[in-house]
Amino acid sequence: MQSAAELRLDAVSCHYGEVRAVDDVTLAVPPGSYVVLLGPSGSGKTTLLSMLGGFTLPTAGRVFIGGEDVTLVPPARRPTATVFQDYALFPHLSVGGNVGFGLSVRGVPKAQIAARVDDALRRVGLEGYGPRAIGAASGGQRQRIALARALVIEPALLLLDEPLGALDLSLRRQMQDELRRLQRAEGRTFVHVTHDQEEAMALADVMVIMNRGRIEDMGPPARLYERPRTRFAAQFLGESSILEGRVAVASGGELAIDTPCGRLQVPGERAVGSAVALAVRSEALRIGGIGDAAPGAQPLGHMQINERVYQGSFLRLGGTGAGGVRLLAKLPPQTFPVDADSDNLPVAVCAGGLVLLED
After folding, report:
1. In the chain, where are the structural domains located?
2. Checking CA distances to 308, which of 3, 239, 248, 263 falls within 20 to 30 Å?
3. Mean pLDDT calculated for residue range 70-82
């Protein structure tokens, strides 16, 4: 069994004429990590995954897996395996035939193939499924068969290209748990592409947010969600309100920033007079005096509410604050009834709810 691989990209780019699908990406990931590449369509995440697998050659830069430069190494000679979005299973082969296909191409003796196929199916919870026809497999079973086919060749790096995209919500969540369990049990490095934010946060040790071919932000999911570094990361991952402002006072690592919603205090270092942007997570807003008297809360004036959406575990309120600022809040339904009468209410941000953005 190959050990988990360290992954490193050095200034990797991929250009298609004038289009920069991936633009000067540098990334280092320790062995045994579950890495999720997250971003909108066209952000470069699938192209980046394709370069890791050797299916696309970089225009510039180098790819290292396990300390070895594999930039020009073809897919079959890399310590990688790929699970594609459509699984790419062969309909004319049995489950076992699909799982063992890569081994047969590599010339592994049939007796060894049979044993390794059985072991791979056991690891994904499909023990005894080898003789079955692919056509009889459900969506979740097909996903596991594709995983078994990838794992059976013992890759140091497993690449997953939106493998849960074709599943319904319930099965997708079940398979998220299965993937995480499997990755921990195998101890391999997984690199997983998705545009689903909940999926990314459920799976990742390291989350990489991509936009226009570049890395916007990366790190543990909790840090990216709670303390995003860029405006795009704050608005793409979850929902945030953005307050534009200018530094009025800077002293001792604390800033006083003048915004349309008043003067706000936030930790940070900026020059007086600098234009800045603050992100406010929707969960950090308090409406109608609820919780705004808590220590450290800062008033933002009033919010004209023009949107109320009940979403089960929370109520989503959209509206306009001072200076026409768009504000979005998520509150427990029991604290703010859907049919509350007032639509122009005081709003505040709880302590620690303001994030000073880098751009």
Report:
1. 7-227, 239-356
2. 263
3. 91
Instruction: Return the beta strands (E) in the chain as ranges.
Output: 7-16, 19-29, 34-38, 60-65, 68-69, 80-83, 157-161, 189-194, 206-211, 214-219, 240-251, 254-259, 262-267, 275-281, 285-287, 298-310, 315-320, 326-331, 344-349, 354-356
Q: Which helix (H) or strand (E) holds 82?
A: strand 80-83
Q: How many CA atoms lie within 13 A of 275 on its CB side?
A: 2
What pLDDT score was predicted for residue 1?
Answer: 46
Given a cut of 70, whether residue 309 has pLDDT beyond it is yes
Q: How many helices (H) and strands (E) does the chain have?
A: 9, 20
Beta-sheet pairing, 157-161 with 80-83 = parallel
Round to whole Å and give the CA distance between 92 and 80: 25
Identify whether the C-beta of residue 324 lies closer than 8 Å to the C-beta of residue 312.
Answer: no
Give the pLDDT band of residue 341 (cuts 50, 70, 90).
Answer: low
Q: What is the pLDDT of residue 280?
A: 94
Residue with tokens 């996903």: 143
Fold exhibited by the domain 7-227 = Rossmann fold (3.40.50)
Nearest to 247 by CA among 237, 238, 256, 260: 256
